[in-house]
Design goal:
By secondary structure, the protein is α/β, with parallel strands linked by helices. It is built from 13 helices and 15 strands. α10 links the parallel β10 and β11 (about 260). α11 (about 290-300) packs across α12.
């Protein structure tokens, strides 16, 4: 049977403690110290992933390092541990490996890992972006924003991911603003967009001014610190934060009840799926990066698909079409690692109506 493996890791020390009850009560520092000496291991078997075209099975492989450890420990040490997780996948018989969370961010975003394994590797970023854009479209519709009339801002548009997002959305909006520190690079992206879509876009390095006028924001910068604060956004704005680390401050969620911040959404996986691992999602749902690995296995495309910092419109469109072919679809929104409920959407709409003096928007 066609199959895959996907690398997971605890985002925090508390995630490890929740998985292994014997660690409850241990300090975060002690847990992280212990994890440094635990080798990668098989976490669970995945079954029931199937479409009308194929069926696959897989494995979650654990890389026992937290997100914090992956950013502060020496890069060679972290890379070696991720590669060892890939070796576990090879021994299990996996035909393709997906990198999850920070394992797809460290170093050169998967290239070194792929060079040290006998099986292909993908970071899942292509489908992550595809679902983020689809989530943005759906969120805009829920808040009554007409894409054809909206002012859409792409933060980090000079990078490959931001440029790809801008090129795709340029075909759907009338007003598009590209934001980055290097306006020279932005001008090149703008020229390409004009050639392919006929849309004349605005470029600027003034992030704050661009945000204040934005109906929709897609944030994909490589900034280490947050760059979107509560006071930066207009009432009724939709913000899709694709960046890791996040571009949007948690204060936006805490202080602004009249804006909607999303991270793309949860993907519904086709078939009678059993992950045998609880990562806080409803049954039969997964992260888009996980889904990309499953999609490639279902399609028998055992190749390095999304690696490194480069990302193209073609990659995004290809994985989006393959996802639709095999029955994957957006299952909901997430914001700051938690699901966004229907009730929360309604509260946001009520707050927008009160602050703008307009009638409540409806979908």
């Amino acid at each position: 049977m066609d199959n895959f493996a996907f690398v997971v890791h605890p985002l925090t020390a508390k995630d490890f403690s929740r998985k292994f009850s014997f660690a409850k009560g241990w300090s975060d520092g002690f847990v992280e110290g212990i994890m440094r000496y635990i080798p990668p291991f098989r976490v669970s078997d995945i079954s029931g992933v199937s479409s009308t075209h194929n069926a696959v099975q897989g494995w979650f492989v654990g890389c026992p390092l937290t997100s914090r450890q992956m950013t502060i420990l020496p890069e060679p040490y972290v890379m070696n541990k991720i590669i060892k997780a890939g070796k576990v996948a090879e021994k299990l018989g996996a035909k393709i490996l997906g990198l999850g969370a920070f394992t797809s961010v460290v170093g050169d975003a998967g290239i070194t890992v792929a060079n040290n394994l006998k099986i292909p590797v993908t970071s899942g970023n292509s489908y992550t972006v595809a679902t983020a854009l689809e989530g943005t479209r759906q969120a805009a519709k829920l808040l009554g924003i007409n894409l054809e009339q909206a002012n859409l801002v792409v933060l980090g548009a000079s990078g490959s991911i931001g440029a790809a997002c801008a090129q795709i959305m340029a075909r759907e909006v009338r007003y598009l603003t590209l934001v980055a520190r290097d306006e020279g690079k932005l001008e090149k992206v703008a020229a390409q967009i004009y050639r392919t879509s006929g849309l004349a876009v605005k470029v600027t390095a003034n992030t704050k001014a661009a945000l204040r006028a934005a109906d929709i924001v897609i944030a994909v910068t490589s900034a280490v610190d947050v760059i979107i604060e509560p006071e930066d956004l207009k009432s009724g704005a939709v913000v899709c934060d694709v960046a890791r680390p996040r571009n949007v401050s948690k204060r936006v969620s805490d202080m602004r009840d009249d804006v909607l911040v999303i991270e793309g959404g949860i993907v519904e996986v086709p078939g009678d799926v059993n992950f045998r691992l609880n990562f806080g999602f409803p049954p039969k749902t997964a992260y888009a990066c996980m889904a990309e690995t499953m999609i490639l296995a279902l399609e028998k495309r055992y190749e390095n698909f999304t690696l490194g910092r480069e990302l193209t419109v073609k990659q995004i469109q290809t994985i989006e079409k393959l996802a639709a072919k095999h029955g994957f679809k957006l299952a909901g929104f997430r914001s700051f690692d938690r699901p966004v409920t229907t009730d929360e959407i309604e509260r946001i709409k009520d707050s927008i109506a009160k602050k703008t003096g307009q009638k409540e928007v409806s979908c």
